[in-house]
Amino acid sequence: MSSIEEDVNPESTEPEVDLVDDSAEEFAGAETIDLPVEEAEVEKDLTPKAEVEKWKDVAARSQAELDNFRKRMAREKTEAIQYANRSLLEQLFPIIDNFEMGLKAAQNEEGDSSMILQGMSMVFKQFNDFLTEQGVEIIESDGVIFDPNVHEALKQEPSEEVKEGVILYTMRRGFRLRDRVLRAANVVVSSGPAVDV
């Protein structure tokens, strides 16, 4: 009799044969992948409402990151525009220094009534006006307390009139562009009254 007939005919006296092989069960068990318990629990615990909330949170965080990126780029662009001419200005300062020295020499040589001196004074004023238009400020130095952030001390000299730590005179003017120092002022600082040894 065939096995089909045995299933249909319950009166059969032949013993039943187990058609499922035990090795197949072992093979099937070997192929199953065990997920970590945490991931499996998270996936099981997420109801549709919880999953919607999860994606809303992801979307909100992504939006916040994009907003921060845009703000940072706008700030960097503004700074780049504000300080774009910094290099040009720094190269212009030695020219202005030399022009100022020439102006002082002409004043000492020719006097205040010289036409050359008057012309040079007008050009010097134009230089200063140009710097002001560009947002450049002259760092105050004569007679103020020495500040290492904006002043560079070249030397100290004793002084009976000026107390210690106060700038006696400026050797070279300093400049700042808005809030950034372009060139520190070179100064001579008072060391206070001379001490006799």
Give a written overview of the molecule.
- 53% of the residues lie in helices and 16% in strands.
- By secondary structure, it is of the alpha+beta class.
- The chain has 3 domains: 37-82; 85-134; 136-197, Roll (Nucleotide Exchange Factor Grpe, Chain A, domain 2), CATH 2.30.22.
- It has a 3-stranded antiparallel sheet. It has a 3-stranded mixed sheet with strand order 2-6-3, with no helix packed on it.
CATH fold-type name of the largest domain: Nucleotide Exchange Factor Grpe, Chain A, domain 2
Please state the second-level CATH architecture of the largest domain.
Roll
Q: Indicate the radius of gyration in whole angstroms.
A: 43 Å
- The chain-level mean pLDDT equals 81
Main sheet makeup: 3 strands, antiparallel
Q: What sequence of helices (H) and strands (E) makes up the elements?
A: HHHHHHEEEEEE
CATH homology superfamily of the largest domain: Head domain of nucleotide exchange factor GrpE
- In order across it, which strands form the biggest sheet? 1-4-5
Annotation, overall tally of beta strands: 6
If helices are DSSP runs of H or I spanning 4 or more residues, what is the number of helices? 6
Q: Could you give a quick summary of the protein structure above?
A:
This protein is of the alpha+beta class.
Features:
6 strands; three-stranded antiparallel β-sheet; 3 domains; Nucleotide Exchange Factor Grpe, Chain A, domain 2; alpha+beta; three-stranded mixed β-sheet; 6 helices
